[in-house]
Specification:
Strand content: 15-25%
Helix content: 40-55%
Oligomer: single chain
């Protein structure tokens, strides 16, 4: 599978039914997938009957040469058509080396000779891939035979003493790299496996920054296998959706960080800060989910994605930045209010003194009033030209 950021240019009009994602008696309908996740996650991933957010389409009949068998489009926020996601489901009947070559091609690795799937052909006219968008891949690989009770090593794979053959496969598939692309440092190679997800004795998973991989640890008996058909179904549905939640969170946090960085460029810091606070509160209430499901694997996959992108630390940094900006804005407002009161005092004091003198003298002619006003203006101007007056004016600005 390949997940790409995209934007919608029109109203979705796919009349086709859901993807043919099923194995034996299990069919991954929207209603069935919704029960796997919490209500908040289900609203994000599938929308509601009156506000749908996900559309699915099978590959057009007759395209037998294309490995793409289905496409999904997810729009988490109906008010942001520029923040959609395209999910392209691909089935490749080939060995692990061929699958790795396809993943390297999708990632745009140098030296990749395998043509990547034509993702653009799977899109409708009302959707476009975001330019220069990073593509997230999810790979699922099993082996028909395992003569040595262990998967064969990838060709030209990295040789790390602390890695098993399964770890080696998982890292190459999830990172979409060959040893020529990125040779791991043997002294710090175990850190590259921090996103491991323990699923069962039959398979393992690994989540990295730009990809995820699932690997079978025993021979796959094909259509008669008791489990791997279900495992493939989970990878194309619930485990994919756990990654999508993390991607939605990543986009939202990145935008909030950028908006906080532009705070001092805004003409009105207070108003800019109010919008940022509202956005952070909305994100925390709707999208900031740490537990996607009551089932462990989906939570583990989401947690691994969040850790790979440092989402908890980045969101905490945004909240801290909002607090600091609040303090600065309150300080500025206090300074401006104090400066305004000071200017009013400096300007009003000479006028009050001048009119008091005129009242004591008992004069009320126009000439005397004019002289008093001019004297008060001169006094106010003189006070504003002092160091204290200039400080008040600077604070007011």
């Amino acid at each position: 599978m390949v997940v790409c950021p995209a934007f919608l240019t029109g109203t979705p009009d796919w009349p086709e039914g859901p993807l043919p994602l099923r194995h034996k008696e299990i069919e991954a309908t929207t209603a069935a997938r919704s029960t796997y996740f919490s209500a908040a996650c289900a609203r994000i991933l599938y929308g509601t009957p009156d506000r749908p957010s996900r559309w699915q389409r099978t590959a057009p009949t007759g395209e037998t040469d294309s490995p793409i068998f289905g496409t999904e489009i997810l729009l988490p926020d109906p008010d942001r058509p520029d923040r959609a996601f395209v999910i392209v489901h691909v089935h490749i009947q080939a060995g692990g080396s061929e699958l790795l070559d396809v993943l390297r091609a999708v990632a745009g690795r140098r030296g990749s000779a395998t043509p990547p799937p034509d993702l653009g052909s799977a899109l409708p006219t009302w959707a476009r891939l975001a330019p220069s968008a990073r593509r997230f891949t999810i790979a699922f690989l099993t082996f028909p035979t395992l003569p040595e009770a262990d998967p064969p090593r990838p060709v030209d794979a990295a040789r790390i003493d602390s890695w098993s053959t399964a770890d080696t496969w998982l890292w190459h598939l999830a990172s979409r790299t060959a040893n020529a692309d990125y040779p791991p440092d043997p002294d710090h190679a175990d850190q590259l496996l921090d996103g491991r997800v323990i699923l069962s004795a039959d398979w393992r998973g690994l989540v990295t920054r730009d990809g995820a991989a699932f690997l079978g640890l025993r021979p796959d008996d094909g259509a008669d296998d008791a489990f791997f058909g279900f495992a493939q179904l989970y990878a194309h549905t619930t485990y994919l959706d756990a990654v999508l939640i993390g991607m939605i969170q990543n986009v939202a946090i990145t935008e909030m960080i950028a908006e906080a960085a532009r705070a001092f460029e805004a003409q009105d810091l207070t108003r800019h800060l109010a919008r940022l606070e509202e956005r952070a509160a909305r994100f925390r209430n709707i999208y900031w989910l740490r537990d996607a499901s009551a089932h462990g694997p989906a939570n583990d996959i989401l947690t691994a994605y969040q850790a790979q992108h440092h989402l908890p630390e980045r969101f905490d940094a945004v909240l801290t930045e909002i607090v600091d900006l609040n303090r600065i804005a309150q300080t500025q407002e206090g300074q401006q209010v104090g400066a305004a009161l000071g200017v009013i005092t400096v300007v009003g004091l000479p006028f009050g003194a001048a009119f008091a003198v005129l009242q004591v003298l008992g004069v009320n002619s126009a000439r005397d009033l004019l002289i008093g006003v001019l004297a008060a203006l001169a006094g106010s101007g003189a006070l504003l030209l002092t160091r204290f007056g200039r400080l008040l004016l600077r604070s007011l600005r």
